[in-house]
Amino acid sequence: MQMRLGKGDDSTGVIRTDPTPVTRLTIMTMVEAGDWAVELPRPLILHVGDEVWIEGAAVFVRQPDGDVVRHDGDGFWLCR
Q1: Is 31 helix (H, G, I), strand (E, B) or coil?
Q2: What is the 8-class DSSP label of residue 21?
Q3: What is the C-alpha R_g of the chain?
């Protein structure tokens, strides 16, 4: 399953998106932000109350208790 975030900012050469709240239980393997995508090596389970964002080729998840977990993947540009 894919998840789409906001376009993100690449003024520094690295795509960064704002944290996006998770509103339902989600299993994802790829996250898109505009023309940039990060594909994860294994499915990631997101829970209600988590926040997710992209920095470069990594997906970050902030859990409701404040812990932040980094999930490294393969980042690539989408040709549309």
Answers
A1: strand
A2: E
A3: 12
Residue 53 neighbours by CB distance under 10 Å:
20
Q: Centre a 10 Å sphere on the Cβ of residue 58 and count the other Cβ atoms it contains.
A: 15
In the prediction, which pLDDT does 59 show? 95
State pTM to two decimals: 0.83
Residue indicated by tokens 């339902």: 24
Q: Which amino acid is at 55?
A: E
Give the per-residue SS3 of 19-77: CEECCCCEEEEEEEECCEEEEEEEEEEECCCCEEEEECCEEEEECCCCCEEEEECEEEE
What's the order of all strands across the beta sheet hosting 2-5?
A: 2-5, 26-33, 36-46, 74-77
**Per DSSP, what are the bridge partners of residue 42?**
none
